[in-house]
Amino acid sequence: MVVAFPLAIGKRRLMGDIRRLLDQRHTGKQGRPALAKVESTAKYKLSRNYTTANLETALNVYDLWLSNNAKPKSEKIKQWEIGVELKLNKLAIKDAYSSLTQDRSVSHNLLGAMVKRYLTQAQKTIKSLEQGVFPVVK
Question: What pTM does this model have?
């Protein structure tokens, strides 16, 4: 399809005409379809939408946390250090070693919260897998 528009008309009208033409030709919606609206024929149905990258990050956090818990208390690292090791947030990692106490504190809190969130997600997913449902994070 070839489209020609006169450039002598105003920008607002031109954009409106283009938007109308796109709406007629492309009826799709943005984003992924909601899981409730999709009919799955899979043997093991998903309970929610997820991304593999998010699941992989959660599993990496869980693995590092598990290996950290197996260490003696003197060798354990803090949760925010797990976030630094896995590079969960580059800006927070930079601030984690800042000379300003406030920046360090905010960064440690942010990384600790991210690690805790991923850890909780991984633990709930593992628990739901034991029951035969994948993945459940509620």
Answer: 0.66
